[in-house]
């Protein structure tokens, strides 16, 4: 080896163990709880968290388990939730096997999904009749609604609008109009 051979060698890479998941994700995989009750607990945590806490949770990484939880709780195939998050099955499986969180963009989309679900839960809770609310399966309704093309979104689905924060805001505006009783 010459004195300059080290310049052509790839840099050493340290193996960094996965960071500890953010506390927001603690409701996932709670023994003895159904996927629906786990998702509802997660949505409650999202609803009660500050913007900076949600930011920190996404920055720390959204675990692949969240995708599986949403799928189980709503009765949808995990591939549908992966598509919504914009993550391929190959990437998902690779990250899951390595105990790595979702890629950043996918994490932001999943948080957008959870925030919209939290907004709807709040609207439902404030709507009035607790008996009617108790029997309404919001999570399943939302899982189907999010894939419907809406004129208010120029024919896009709410799932498509989760691609960026401006799209998420547009969906939130549709939800606000729904709260006001206007057509959505």
TrEMBL record:
InterPro entries found in the cross-reference section: Xre/MbcA/ParS-like_toxin-bd
Domain of life according to the entry: Bacteria
Ranges of residues in domain Antitoxin Xre/MbcA/ParS-like toxin-binding: 139-181
Protein name per its UniProtKB record: Uncharacterized protein (DUF2384 family)
Pfam families noted in UniProt: Xre_MbcA_ParS_C (PF09722)
Organism: Duganella violaceipulchra
């Amino acid at each position: 080896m010459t004195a300059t051979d080290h310049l052509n060698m790839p840099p050493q890479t340290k193996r960094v163990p996965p960071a500890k998941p953010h506390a927001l994700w603690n409701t996932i995989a709670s023994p003895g709880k159904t996927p629906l009750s786990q998702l509802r607990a997660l949505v409650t945590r999202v609803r009660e968290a500050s913007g900076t806490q949600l930011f920190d949770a996404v920055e720390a990484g959204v675990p692949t388990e969240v995708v599986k939880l949403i799928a189980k709780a709503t009765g949808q195939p995990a591939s549908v939730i992966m598509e919504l998050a914009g993550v391929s099955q190959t990437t998902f499986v690779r990250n899951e096997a390595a105990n790595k969180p979702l890629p950043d963009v996918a994490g932001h989309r999943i948080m957008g999904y959870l925030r919209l679900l939290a907004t709807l839960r709040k609207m439902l809770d404030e709507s009035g009749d607790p008996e009617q609310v108790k029997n309404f399966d919001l999570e399943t309704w939302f899982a189907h609604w999010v894939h419907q093309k809406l004129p208010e979104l120029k024919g896009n689905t709410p799932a498509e609008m989760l691609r960026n924060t401006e799209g998420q805001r547009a969906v939130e505006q549709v939800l606000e109009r729904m709260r006001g009783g206007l057509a959505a």
